[in-house]
Each structure stands twice: as C-alpha cells, then as structure tokens.
Amino acid sequence: MLILHPRIYLDYRGTITDALLIDGHHVVAIGEEARRRAGRSAEVVRPEAACVMPALGDAHIHLWGAGLRAHTIDLRGMSAAQILNELRLAAPRQDGWIVGTNWNENNFADDHPLNLALLDQLFPNQPVCLHRVDAHALWVNSEALRRAGLDGRVHDLSGGLAERGPDGRLTGVLIDHAMEPVLRALPPANAAEDRLIFTHTANTLVSHGVSFSSMAFTSMERLQLVDELIADGELPSRVDFWIDGTSPDIDRLLERGPRQADAAGHRVGTIKFFADGALGSAGAWLLEPYRTGGQGLQTQPVGYLKARIPELMRAGWQVAVHAIGDAAARDVLDAFEAVPPELRARLRPRLEHAQIVHPDDCPRFAELGVIASIQPIHLRSDVPWAPRRLFEPQLQRLFPWRDLLPTTLAAGSDYPIDDPNPWHGIATALTRQGYDEQSFGPEHTLTRHEAIRAYTFGAAFASHREHQLGALHPGYLADVIALSADPFVDSPEAIRDIEVIWSRLPGR
C-alpha cells in the first residue's frame, strides 16, 4: 500500500513526508523511495484529511475491570436524585446484583445522601454495588454488606476505610481496601464477559486513533485469558498487560518470567502495585491533611515497596506503581531509588498518575529515570472541585507537568474512570482547562510537540515498544491515522473535535 498526502507526519517532532509505503504490517519506505519501490501494482490511498500521522497510544487504561462490566448502570454526571431515579428503573443482572459505576459526589448537593437507608428502601433484598468514578470507593446496601460478611461492627482494613456517619453507623461507602469483601462477594466476570468488554473498549480506542495501550491491571486469574487473547492474533489493539503484584499466586508468574514485546506489539512484562487511593474519595496519601481532615490511605505496609520492588526488578520485571498523592509519590520514588541505576535504566520504572507531587520530588523523576505516567484528562475532571479538598499549597502541586520534565511523560486516559478520547486529553494538556472552562496553572501547559510526544513516543517507550510504535519511520508497525484537523498546527478547540477520517489499524 502506498499512502500519498502532502502532510504525513512521521513522528512527534513533526517530521514530514508525502509518501509512505507499507508492506504487510510495517512501513518499508518514505518519500521518493516509497514511490520508486511501490511499483504500478501497489494499492494507492490518498486520504482526504488534514494530515496523516502515527496512531496514538494510551499509557494507562483498564480494558476490563475497574467496575467495567456488562449490564452495568452508568451513573456518570448524575446528581443524587438522578441516581435514585435511575436505580428505581434498574433491573438486576442475571446474578441478582444491581451494579453501577461512575457515581461522583461532586455532582451532589453538599448534603449528599450517601447512606444505606436510601439503597435499602429501593432494594431491601437485592445486593447493590455502585462503583465511584475513580473505582476507589463503593456505595453499597445492607444486603451487599451481609453477603460480604460485614455488619455494623466492621473494622477498617489496613489501607481502607468503612465510612461512618455522625451516629457511628456505616454509611455504605467503602474506600480502597475496605471494598475487598464486597468485591469478593460480587460474582466475578467470566472469560466470555471479559472478552466482550475488552473488544468493545479496544474498538472504542481504535475509533479515536489509538492502536496500542497499557492495560493497567490484570489479575492472575485472568492470565490464561491474556495468553489466549495474544495467541488468537485478532486483538483490535496492541496491548501491554500488567499483572497484580499483590496476588497470592504471583510466584507462578515470576517462575514464567517477563515476556517482552512480540512482533505484533503485545507484552507481559510489568507488575503493578498501588501506593494509595484516589483524590476524589480522599484516599490519595498526602504529606499534609485534606481540608476535610485526614491524610488519605497508605495502601501498602510501611517499607514494603522499598523491599519488594528491587527484588522484582532484579528478576527482570518492570514495575509500575499507582501514586496520586505527594506522600505516595515520595514513598514510591524512595523505593525506586533503592534499585541499582543500571536496572532502572534498563527496565524503566513507572509512577502512575503523578497527580500531586512535592516540588522537592519533581526533579527526582529525571534523576532516577522514572517515567511519569500522566492522564491530562483528569485535570479537566478534577480541578473544578479540587479546591474543596485541598489547601492552596497542595493545589500548587497538582498536575505539575512542566516541573516533571525532562523525564519521559507517558500519557493515557485511565478509562473507564475518565474519557478515553485522546484528543480531549491533548487539548487539555495544551489549555489546562477544567470542565468549567477555567484555566488551572497555565504555566504548566505542555507544548503541542510535548503533548503529542507523550501520546506516541512516551506511551511506547514506557512499555518498551518505542522501536515498533508511535512513529512511522521504516521498520515501524504501520499503524496509520488520517485526521479531520492537524494537531501540530490547529487550535486546541479544533484538536478537541478531531475525528479519524481513515485509518490502517490492527483489527480493522
């Protein structure tokens, strides 16, 4: 296939050619050499688009899990009253549970009624499990607590919180590790459901021009499904699968060893941990207290990461750690610092989210060779309500993208927790506007080259696939998209509205 267009971008630097020759799965030539080698029999494609460029990556996404289930009620953007109205119309799933996702108390009135009584009135005999938008909290009813073996005497688990009202009774809100008994009681997805959700999510990404992604959490129980998905050769996305580092069955994975990226761009080489919870549920672990009190949740025992991470990296595994709060980020950076420099350089440790980082810790990312995995779209979602959670000095540490440079930024969406459209994320990186359209910390905006780099080279580099993906130089996988606007020159508003006019992507 010979692709002809006056503006074919080969990489995030904006290198341009006007011809691209593809043979099989790879780019084999560009420019005049592409025309010369194509021959008269080659299929010629002339996309009617503003530009042609490499497909993007999503450096942090949940292709299944994180509350993403079939027959789940989507509560995104709803007020408390709207949620209750939606639930009144809800039918239970085949397993008898009422399951929802994406509730967000920031859409409620100040006296939001997150309590057992409301859910118990609607569903006195059926279990209800509603995932918060960040997947770090549940709102459940009494029947769900009963099935989980919990009652009013439940004690908080280490790294978790069972919220109580002024009267000392459970509200039905469970945060981080306190969710686990209910999640264990909830009938798990089977392989067929996971395949369905995976395929739907991957095709959603492809429709936005995303051809490769990092699947940010995979349980050991799903490792066989991962192997089957890779073996069938029909994945609509090139995936880097990460495995849960706290699984009791992790030794089985360690015996097998990491798998580096294969010819199609699939990889099983990363182990993931959580160092804290999420900002919205006040579970992000902070150096100073929230406005509402408390400093969040440290979800791993003291010293655990500092001991465990070097062991895993010595065995050849890349390690990625969720750390949203500044205390969590510092703890994770300390753990990575305990790894020999040559191992860090080879295996590329990742800190996921880097949402609140103390100024003293920002330079440590580059000094230690730690990749900052960021989700620009979270700024759009979070900053309108962040002042209700954080004090001014903490707000100044929020989304400190420019202070993290020159470390490698790898960008993603964290879907289904947030919007999977990468063009919305890139526009947010350029403007730092929340959904209220107010700019937050404009001194930390990224340039368009930096933003595109984070969604192409950065996402590929973070998963050891920069030699295959994120560019269209000869030898790279030929994941090509043609767009309705040009992200290298057009306005952030135009970028936000970009559509993929034509593509040559896996599964298509």
Automatic annotation (TrEMBL):
Amidohydrolase domain location: 51-500
Spans through the membrane: none
Protein's name in the database: Amidohydrolase
Entry superkingdom: Bacteria
Pfam assignment, any one: Amidohydro_3
Coiled coil region boundaries: none
Alphabetical list of InterPro entries matching this protein: Amidohydro_3, Metal-dep_hydrolase_composite, Metal_Hydrolase, YtcJ-like
